[in-house]
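Hey, resending since the last one bounced:
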Amino acid sequence: MSTESSAPAQMIDPAVAALAAIDAPWAAVAAAAAESKLGTDTLVLNVGDAIAVTEHFVITNGNNSRQVKAIVNEIEHQVKLVDGPGPIRIEGQQGMDWVLMDYGEFVVHVFSEEARGFYQLERLWKDCAELDWRTLAES
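The structure tokens again:
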């Protein structure tokens, strides 16, 4: 009988690992995790100057409810793998149309494609600067 664990290895996404290694903001790590599960048009907005309750918004979407769920799970999993914080609360998992993951210093919004088009958070927060997390991951 083998003593090796039959559990799959916990793989850290390379972009997540790169961002964690340079102490990038946790919001950037979450964005990379979202893209690793094919989140679409993932962006990070610096909202700290506009609102006092958080520093960054991560906005992404999936093509259907299964993908939204996979993105949410992957963000939580990957952030934990690199010793990041856990979410304070997660809302919206019943319908998987708009899931909000509150981490305190950043908030992740994972939308269905339709909900993202309807709510247009990027337009609402258009005056906030975007954090170029992709460039950080490449450095």
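The beta strands are 40-46, 56-62, 89-91, 98-102, 106-112, 130-131.

Sorry for the duplicate.
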